Amino acid sequence: SVRRAVLTAKSRAQFRQYAAAIEQFRIEYGFYPDFGSSSADTDPLISLRGISEIFLQTLSGRKFDGGSIDHSYALAANKQRIPFYRFGQAEFASGTVPICGETIQKGELVDAFDNPNIFLVFDGDRNGVIEKQNLPPGSEDLHAAVAIYSLSSGNGSNGCQDWKTITTWD
After folding, report:
1. pTM, to two decimals
2. Which of 128, 130, 121, 89 is nearest to 108 (CA)?
3. pLDDT band at 98; cut points 50, 70, 90
4. What does the pLDDT look like over 9-36, one tens digit per residue?
5. In angstroms, rounded to a whole number, what is the distance separating the alpha carbons of residues 115 and 112?
6. Which terminus of the chain has fewer CB atoms gathered within 10 Å of its CB, N or C?
7. For the packed helices 52-60 and 2-29, what is the interaxial angle rounded to 10 degrees?
8. Residue 39 pLDDT more than 70?
9. Backbone angles phi, psi at 22, to 5 degrees
């Protein structure tokens, strides 16, 4: 239980740092990055599955190896290549592994439990509220500009018994 508490705290801190970096991006550029998804006037919900590279390059202003941005969307979003966040190796899956009935790809963004099911939501209409339909089940409307969470697998089997829902607001 101590291990779970430490990993939960680590994930929550990681998510809060992402949220702060995204808010700094908004302050600098005047809009939230949409990471290649469509941005609407409502609260956009974005899954980070499959867009880890865009997320990394947009927020860090570089590739993971320190090279120049090579993803055209990331470069268009972060024109000045401002490093809003510095990603660490532990934030990415170290190898391609089957877990919880799915395959996690090497380099995919994960929380401290190696859970890749990470979502972020922006207060797209800037009314100061993120609507509960874009949050985990059982959540209420949230007074925040950016919310980030990972969802548990719900089944507690196949190596994912440690996965749990982690949020920036608890």
Report:
1. 0.87
2. 89
3. confident
4. 999 999 999 999 999 999 999 988 878 7
5. 7
6. N
7. 60
8. no
9. -65, -40
